[in-house]
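Quick illustration, no need to memorize.
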Amino acid sequence: MSYFQFKQRLDAGDVIVLDGGTGTELERRGVPMSPDAWCGPATLGNAELLTQIHLDYINAGSDVITANTYAANSMMLTPAGYGDKIEEIVKTAVDAALRARDLAPKGRNIIVGGSLSHMVPLNPGTDTVDQVRTPPPPQIAESFHQLAQLLKAGGVDHIMLEMMYEENRTAMALQAALDTGLPVWFGLAARRNDAGKIISFNLAQESPLKAVLDLIPEKGVDVVSVMHTQPQAVSDTISMVRKKFSGPIGAYPDSGYFEMPNWNFTEVIPAEKLEGFYAEWLDMGVQLIGGCCGLTVDHIHAAQRVKSSR
């Protein structure tokens, strides 16, 4: 299916099932994560497993699969010793997803997104930015531009901006995505502060989500998703997005928590409980449902069950 045909489904109001976590699913299936670059280098030597993960999501109901390129920018890979393998890592990740699409059951129409985050080096054992190893803005922008162009060259259908929460890096990532000329999806991350207010996910400081929402352009973004956000905070965040964006909205939460370079799976929401959230979000007008870090094939089965019940 071409992206144009997929967009027609969106415009018609169809419910779309996304995939679940990719990097965390590699880890859950036994692949070690890089201490410095998380799941980016894990693509090397694991292309077949990546394809199987994508296929498992497709068989669970996913209409959209996401290449494992969230942590594949030069800022993450070069300090970790993979600076000479950036192109290989991105190409391998995209090829693994395209291969899964080719192997999908007959009649399934799947599109492949290229993940582009604004991830920068993190302090070990935390989910906080390492300010010492984070490069200056021009280098950050160039890193995003390089990854976006590699994703385009690799053959993805669209760019998925993921976990946008820091205003300046979000603006640079958005521009890099738009410069490809490919369709762009905008995924923002939020959290509740101690007072219960929805704010940007930014863990370094309390930042208003409005600063990120205001970056969403009037034209050029096909979907805005609330992602990498705890399920209990998603509904209120959706309401904030709807005030800014009139197009299709997605919801793919995370569950558990991150301690660089590992995901802690001990507090992951049961798939049966997530079904209730999926139903609530669809009732709010959300069209795309799936999962982010920590969420698995079981959770995508849950999304498909909710879709099928409508």
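The chain has one domain: 3-308.
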